[in-house]
Specification:
Shape: rod-shaped
Number of helices: 4
Order of helices and strands: HHHH
Radius of gyration: 21 Å
Structural class: mainly alpha
Distance between the termini: 76 Å
Largest sheet: none
Strand content: under 5%
């Protein structure tokens, strides 16, 4: 793996997340989980030469920060879209007869 390949994979990951329609917990698992996309990319750091690891690490840190903020923003939007209901309001009485 080279820095250019890593940049391409990062861009591809960002595009995938922008097109993703899954919920917050599923996104966390897919992108930031133990066997997620981020950890797969991070495991590729071992293959890079020592002088390129610093740059690659910075790119991966930026990606992780972006993933975390994007997933959190989606979760907050989903939370906002839920309509608030007052559960203490009396219900509708059924008709008699």
């Amino acid at each position: 793996m080279t820095i250019d390949q890593l940049k391409q994979q990062i861009a591809q990951t960002q595009q995938e997340l922008k097109q993703e329609t899954a919920s917050g917990a599923d996104l966390v698992t897919k992108y930031l989980g133990k066997k997620g996309v981020f950890n797969t990319l991070a495991s590729g750091l071992r293959e890079l030469p020592a002088e390129e690891r610093k740059t690659a690490g910075q790119l991966l840190n930026e990606l992780k920060g972006w993933l975390e903020t994007e997933i959190a923003a989606r979760a907050s939007r989903a939370q906002e879209s839920l309509a608030w209901q007052d559960l203490t309001v009396p219900g509708i009485k059924p008709e008699v007869g």
